[in-house]
Amino acid sequence: MLIKSSPLPCWLNAQNTAVAVALIKFGFVYEGELEGDDIDATEAVTQGWLVGCRCCDNSIVAIFDGAVFSSLCNGESDSELRYNQVKKLIRATLRSYKPFNPYQQLQLLKTGS
Fold it and tell me: 64 exposed, middle or buried (CB, 10 Å; 0-12, 13-18, 19+)?
């Protein structure tokens, strides 16, 4: 049996892994687990996801269950724009998530009689 490794946290379920992948495609990097209190402010987005900022390095962070994803910003206007885009990205990804069910029951076509 081949075990697939992932650079993402193993405790994320499929739905939250989809959000993590979307964040990475948007330019975020997975930093690891939340340690200390170097994040200045956070705001609850939805379903346990938080978005915040780290003023010391002008970055935006997205956090779920201790997993921290971050992205550097270029100036205050970029920071505010990306902050709002990240919140929308998280909401949209969670809203559009469709779980894969390999055991879905097949439906037979009904024919007219």
Answer: buried
Sequence-distant (6+) residues with CB within 8 A of 27 are 71
Tell me the whole-structure pTM to 2 decimals.
0.77
Report pLDDT for 110.
64
At which residue do the structure tokens 């902050």 appear?
Answer: 83
Instruction: Give 32's contacts (C-beta < 8 A, 6+ positions apart).
Output: 67, 68
How far is residue 66's CA from residue 39's CA, in Å, rounded to a whole number? 12
CA distances from 70 to 34, 56, 57, 106 (A): 11, 13, 11, 42
Quote the Cα angle for 21-31-71, to 5°.
Answer: 70
The secondary structure of residue 68, as a DSSP letter, is E
Q: Tell me: the pLDDT tens digits for 39-63?
A: 788 889 988 999 998 888 888 999 9
